[in-house]
Structures are given as C-alpha cells and as structure tokens.
Amino acid sequence: MRNVVKRIFLTYIMLILPIPLQAEEVKKGKDVIITPILETDRTTSGQIISLPQGNVQVIVSKYEIAPGAELPIHKHSYPRYGYVLAGMLRVSNQDTGKSRVFKTGEFIVEAIDQWHQGTNIGSTPLELLVIDQVEEGKSNIILPDKAPSGVAN
C-alpha cells in the first residue's frame, strides 16, 4: 500500500512540475503576450470570495446589452465574474449605495448576496462575458419578489 501511495505521489509530482516551466516558457515567447488583467481575493464591494462547497459547476455566458438598457435588480448566491468585451457597464449596488463603471478590457468580481443592477451607459452595445461558479444544478441569479426599498421597479 505504501508503495502504491508513493508511486501515485511521484506520478502527480512529475505531471505537475512541468506546468510552471511551460507557463514560464510561454511568457518568454515572442508570439505570445500574457497581460495580467486582475488578481484579487475580494468582490467589487470588498467581500472575500468564497467558493461553493460540493460539486461545482462552471457556467459561461455572453451577454449583449443594448445602449441604455438595464438589467433587472438581482443578486448572486455564488461567485460571478465578468469581463467587458466591448462597451461600458455601470453597476449600482443598492446595499452599499455605491456605483462603479467598467470599460472594455476590465474584469468584474460581482458582489455576493447584495442587490445590484447593471446598466449599459455607453452609446454602443455592451458585450459581457460572464462566468458563474455554482453548486451543480443551481442558478446564480436571484430576482426580488419586490424591489428593495428605495428602488423603483
């Protein structure tokens, strides 16, 4: 049994060790440019990111939002990330009272369990790549039965 565990561990190490080396080789290549976009452990409202427990499902969607269009007020139970492919998005957080604008090329780590709303404030269509990490089979969009106080329906 001990030899089996040792073999599995050594095989794992042999498979893992080349990965950082390959990443370094890619960074040094002339044909590939890697540009860091964001590194964080917090959401846009300052919450520590906490991943779902159990079986995690990744859902990737592309949103196309017309100029001036608003998404309904909503919140998320699980981590949601967004990347602005084109346009300008204003996210207004009803719980904190703060708004933030995201432009083409910016990454968003959305607030968890806080009511917020997105609006395309640009003059062109907004294209947004959205990535959800949820418990398998669960939705990550919660709409209010009734809008939070102070917010128009």
TrEMBL record:
Residue intervals of the Cupin type-2 domain: 63-131
UniProt xrefs under CDD domains: cupin_CV2614-like
SUPFAM superfamilies hit by this protein: RmlC-like cupins
Protein name in the entry: Cupin type-2 domain-containing protein
Annotated source species: Paramesorhizobium deserti
